[in-house]
Amino acid sequence: MTQKKPITVAITGAAGNIAYSLIFRICSGELFGNDQPFNLSLIDIEPALPALEGLVMELQDSNFRLINKTICTTDPFEGFRDADYAILLGSYPRNKNQTRKDLLGKNVSIFKIQGKALSFVAKKTVKVVVVGNPVNTNALVTAKYAENIPKENIVALTRLDMNRSISQLSRKLNKNVSNIKNVFTWGNHSASQFVDLSNGYLLEGSKKTPLTELVEKEWTYGEFQTTNQTRGKAVILKRGRSSAGSAANAVIDLLKSWIYGTETYVSMGVISDNNPYNVPENLIFSFPCTCKNGSWKISKDLKPNDFCKKMIKKNVDELVSERNIAFGLLQD
Amino acid sequence: MTQKKPITVAITGAAGNIAYSLIFRICSGELFGNDQPFNLSLIDIEPALPALEGLVMELQDSNFRLINKTICTTDPFEGFRDADYAILLGSYPRNKNQTRKDLLGKNVSIFKIQGKALSFVAKKTVKVVVVGNPVNTNALVTAKYAENIPKENIVALTRLDMNRSISQLSRKLNKNVSNIKNVFTWGNHSASQFVDLSNGYLLEGSKKTPLTELVEKEWTYGEFQTTNQTRGKAVILKRGRSSAGSAANAVIDLLKSWIYGTETYVSMGVISDNNPYNVPENLIFSFPCTCKNGSWKISKDLKPNDFCKKMIKKNVDELVSERNIAFGLLQD
């Protein structure tokens, strides 16, 4: 058997909790396949380096045969070298007394450098998943500075929002998650996000029942939305820690969809282009996408109702405002 | 396609860190297969129930289609009901000012109840993996009270010790972990453990080179042993937290070996029977085992050298002493 050539997977915030949940699953071969060796490039800030070395010791002690080489670094220009995949988990965390502008300011400078580094040293075909919040604008800043990388290659994680909505519907309908299709979120990964189930259906055998026939309108536009918006906080209240395992899982789900394709809609935060939903160009926006041969495509044949259009508009406004602040700061 | 009947997987200490690393990997289908649905039975102490509920929320939000039903409970008589697999992660942690007797005392009472519960409510064919320390004696106590369960079904995790030794050899020889075969640990999962590489070899293509030809004797009986013994502490020093991810990984490795079989020796802490190594009966002792059709077998054709025999004796003495303390406490 000829061995496949190793691919390179770079991860920022690699000493953090999401990374700890993500990396062991990647190393098990679950994402890239049991015959695909890889180089791991683990990136984090200086104070996190000891923890990162501890993680590397644990990866060694897990006897993962697919790991070809591992490096730890604080320098994205070293860490992203020849990357086939870059998973950007790290970001500047929100503090209590911080304005949105302060938060954006801290993150803009991180993702500007990372965008430049990706542009200079990563493969031109690199697939980039941005996870650190505010994720849509962080991804947009990355795309802006990653001049040599097609903007299509940079995707913001909104899959956890979609997964949470399917999780809710699964409990509401008492059906397996795998029976619920074509539910997704529009817009920003923030409290403004809008979950759209108007195209969704319950699949049982070959029978498709529209979700709108199965759940009440009041619930759809009320509790369903607010539960999704506040799910992250609800997990923190119970666990005392943020939802690392399910976030890592959403990264894997997103990449599986992107790499291996999907037959139904999935949520992906992608660069907006000419689209029938009045989302202006040059935003990273969560759209219903389908994937094939390693590329995503925005589904353009949906007919959002008036309420949905209003929510899309709200998300556009919010993201334009974030973009204006972020790009303004970049000129300072 | 006919769907497989769900199996039941019970996990104690389910709100802890090893569980958090383990459960997502199990739920991904990695261990029991992509077509094997399961019930999750999550067991922990009362104060951990909120965290456990948070974990369940995250599992829901991960859209794991293989999960059939999940329960959270503090009661092993509920938690182990109909279990096909029981993974006992929870134990009473070691405190600084605690004697070995105190520590054993706390744990003996936990594993006595769990043994009884397994005996009463689990499937007779249940496979039990004990992870909580002191793991050998905890497993022995479990076996003693699980009267209806064959003692062969209860195994103590010593796989992490084996994995760590292969990890060391991999770095020493600059070879992939998968090239290193038949290295294992004897005895107790404690500082007395002895890593035996005298039967090990480096496999390259079809060429087998004995490890004894590749590493120095001094290293084999010196640094190699001490590094393995202190590896857990070394990880804690770097990470500031104990090695949860690699411990969870070792549980998966052990169960894969046990369920799917193995062609070379693996470390398993199993009930001692008539064996040529002078290990008396009625101890849970790490032996070199091979597995086939869901059963393990101690490899009985090895020829330990004098030093190894001395180390086996040391481990026997330590475990007999632990057993005497533990069983003495059980009579109180």
UniProtKB/TrEMBL annotation, chains A, B:
Its EC number is 1.1.1.37. Belongs to the LDH/MDH superfamily. MDH type 2 family. Gene3D superfamilies: Lactate dehydrogenase/glycoside hydrolase, family 4, C-terminal, NAD(P)-binding Rossmann-like Domain. One of its GO terms (molecular function) is L-malate dehydrogenase (NAD+) activity. Pfam families: Ldh_1_C, Ldh_1_N. SUPFAM superfamilies: LDH C-terminal domain-like (SSF56327), NAD(P)-binding Rossmann-fold domains (SSF51735). GO terms for biological process: malate metabolic process; tricarboxylic acid cycle. It catalyses: (S)-malate + NAD(+) = oxaloacetate + NADH + H(+). It comes from the Eukaryota. Residues 158-323 form the Lactate/malate dehydrogenase C-terminal domain. Keywords: NAD, Oxidoreductase, Tricarboxylic acid cycle. InterPro entries: L-lactate/malate_DH, Lactate/malate_DH_C, Lactate/malate_DH_N, Lactate_DH/Glyco_Ohase_4_C, Malate_DH_AS, Malate_DH_type2, NAD(P)-bd_dom_sf. This is Malate dehydrogenase. The active site is at 189 (proton acceptor). Substrate binds at residues 94, 100, 133, 164. NAD(+) binds at residues 44, 107, 131-133. Residues 9-154 form the Lactate/malate dehydrogenase N-terminal domain.
